[in-house]
UniProtKB/TrEMBL annotation:
Belongs to the TNF receptor-associated factor family. This is TNF receptor-associated factor. Transmembrane segments: none annotated. Residues 376-396 are annotated as: Disordered. GO terms for biological process: positive regulation of JNK cascade; regulation of apoptotic process; regulation of canonical NF-kappaB signal transduction; signal transduction.
Amino acid sequence: MDYKAILANCHNSSSEGVFKCPEDQLPLDYAKIYPDRDLETQVLGLSIRCIHSEEGCRWNGQLKQLQIHLNICAFNVIPCPNRCSTKLIRRDLPEHMQHDCPKRKVRCEFCGSDFTGEAYEDHQGSCPQESVYCENKCGARMMRRVLSQHSLAECPKRTQPCPYCNKEFVFDTIQSHQYQCPRYPITCPNQCGMANIAREDLNGHLKDSCSSALVLCPFKDSGCKHRCPKISMSRHLEENMRSHLSMMSSLVSRQRQEIQDLKKQVEELSVSSEGVLIWKISDYSRKVQEAKVRGNFESFSPVFYTHRYGYKLQVSAFLNGNGSGEGSYLSVYIRVLPGEYDNLLEWPFSYRVTFTLLDQSDPSLSKPQNITETFNPDPNWKNFQKPSGSRNSLDESTLGFGYPKFISHEDIRKRNYVRDNSIFLRASVEIPQKIIA
Ligand SMILES: [Zn+2]
Ligand SMILES: [Zn+2]
Ligand SMILES: [Zn+2]
Ligand SMILES: [Zn+2]
Ligand SMILES: [Zn+2]
Ligand SMILES: [Zn+2]
Ligand SMILES: [Zn+2]
């Protein structure tokens, strides 16, 4: 039994008031317990290991030396001498005193002030004397106490709003921004006296409201080349009323000519060029009456071309007849008109022409009986020669070729040649395939 066990037993026994032998657990007679000097000397002389041997202390010696050893034993638990209320084994004390003890003494390396460990935790990272880099990464290094002044007012990398457009910019780019800032104030380059025009509004000012900007005379499309500041324009207009008017009138006549040319082109584009004309003469009975009254009255068809780039032709009809047919026949003629492509064509005009009066009877009820006449142009006929530029309407070369007695007024009533008060006259020209191609 070691010393520790004996002490523990004695201690337990006294609190219970019953004494038992720690060896055999038999009750002891109190009267027989007495101090035994010899035995004590003997016990205190026993050789023992340190009570911290299990934690690693290798000390051993006589029991009476133990207390002295414990005063220096690296494994003995002791309170921190700074009274920080920590208890720890002696071996860990230096580390604690140096780094962890909240009551240790620390001196700030920057400001030289003394702190307890606790207070230093707070001071660290905020010491006004510590030298730090600017957080904007401008590269400057300074004591912490001047940092905020630097960041607000001195740092070249601080952000700052542009005073004109209010957008945020890094301080050292704000100057170059202001060369482009859309709200940067500018003085009118025309010296009209306007200052403080925002850059983005300048064009609008020059265009709409600058009194010094040069403007073009509103009669520029009529040919006036005058330019002057906006405010002088009304005087120019007053002084040049006559010349502006004459410019206008010549513009109008130029435009009239252009319109005529365009009309002619549109007509050319709209004429048929397939070698076939189907000419509807509507309001037939009224037109026959009119022809009777006016005598020798000729109606004209739309013009048409024999083929693309071919001969330009026109059919005419005397609804009350002419020549040998006058008064009782429908007469039909065709004539060659001066065309756009005459210089490219063979002359005289020599292709077979067929006139047809169409029977408008319903083909499902009876076979249509069209009236047809075909002729080969007489090469000596004046109108089939190449038209000359100087042709006029009284010239015999304008006389069409055709049939004064195409159909009698009597026959035209027999079938459905007139239907819904309209007749259809067809003229077709047989052009050989090789010419069309
Ligand atoms: Zn020890
Ligand atoms: Zn401590
Ligand atoms: Zn400090
Ligand atoms: Zn900075
Ligand atoms: Zn700006
Ligand atoms: Zn201006
Ligand atoms: Zn003008």
